Amino acid sequence: MPKIQVKDIQLDYEDYGKGNVLLLLHGLGSTKKDWDAQVPFFSKKYRVITLDLRGHGDSTKPLNAYGVGLMTEDVKQFLDQLHIKKATVVGFSMGGAIAFEMAARYPQYLDNLVIVNSGPDFNDMGKTGEDLLKNRIEFLETKGLEALAKEISFNMFPEPHQIKMRNDFDTRCRNNDYNAYYKSFVTLMAWGLGEKIKNIKTRTLVVASDMDYTPITFKEDYVKKLPNATLAVVKNSRHGVVIDQPEAFNLTLEKFLNHE
User: Which residues form the AB hydrolase-1 domain (predicted)?
Assistant: First the structure.
């Protein structure tokens, strides 16, 4: 797998197919493997790039340098290194925060913006956000990353027929560097776009699962603030929609891309 030097770190990535670029950004504590069900489908018509964000997978794990802002700069410089002028940026969960920040800072790089089970203000989610921050830090500090990986994976893929998805995600999550995961999480929960969301004019698709951690109404509320956004709901899906309902997700995204 190739790596690209961005500032003082290396980003591990994979690059498939030809055509307009789809850049796929994974969730917290995971890797580019989140997109295994999308790459074969979309690389027939598009150039599909997946990368491990800083602190994740096979990319560099700095000691202290984390945060959505830094990861966004990584993505911008990553595209520059590959001489990519425009891409559809698809962000799942934490990747959605980076995609949002990219649209706010560097709109000229985006053909389209796709936000998957994410939000524009992790620092302003009310009691849900406060509880998540407090409980997860406490869980990490008392029970450790392996126990957290097991719990997250079960919550995402609890059905008997999802055991392989659960085990694969658990493996990815437990393989994290503790410090990198901790600092990625804490800095993510401190991030928010605020009023800048109203300035994002990029054509946007927001994908929501009917059983995600946050309700559909949460996504509806911020879609209204985006000048050029549509919402698509995937049924019978939890947080990891790109994994637990890949066919429905792929068709939803394909439909959006075909109506450019």
Answer: 20-131
Write the burial class of residue 127 (CB in 10 Å: 0-12 exposed, 13-18 middle, 19+ buried). Answer: exposed
Domain ranges of the chain: 3-122+193-258
Q: pLDDT tens, 138-172?
A: 999 999 999 999 999 999 999 999 999 999 999 99
Instruction: Note whether 210 and 236 are within 8 A (CB).
Output: yes
CATH topology of domain 3-122+193-258: Rossmann fold (3.40.50)
CA distances from 26 to 32, 96, 104, 194, 232 (A): 6, 8, 19, 22, 19
- For 41-69, how does the pLDDT look when each residue is reduced to its tens digit (9 = 90+)? 999 999 999 999 999 999 999 999 999 99
Q: How far apart are CA 209 and CA 206, in angstroms?
A: 10
| 4 beta partners | 11
Query: In sequence order, what DSSP letters do the residues of 157-222 get, joined into one string?
Result: S-SGGGHHHHHHHHHHHHTS-HHHHHHHHHHHTT-B-GGGGGG--S-EEEEEETTSSS-HHHHHHH
* Overall pTM > 0.70: yes
Distance (Å) of CA 194 to CA 22, 28, 32, 34, 107? 26, 21, 28, 28, 17
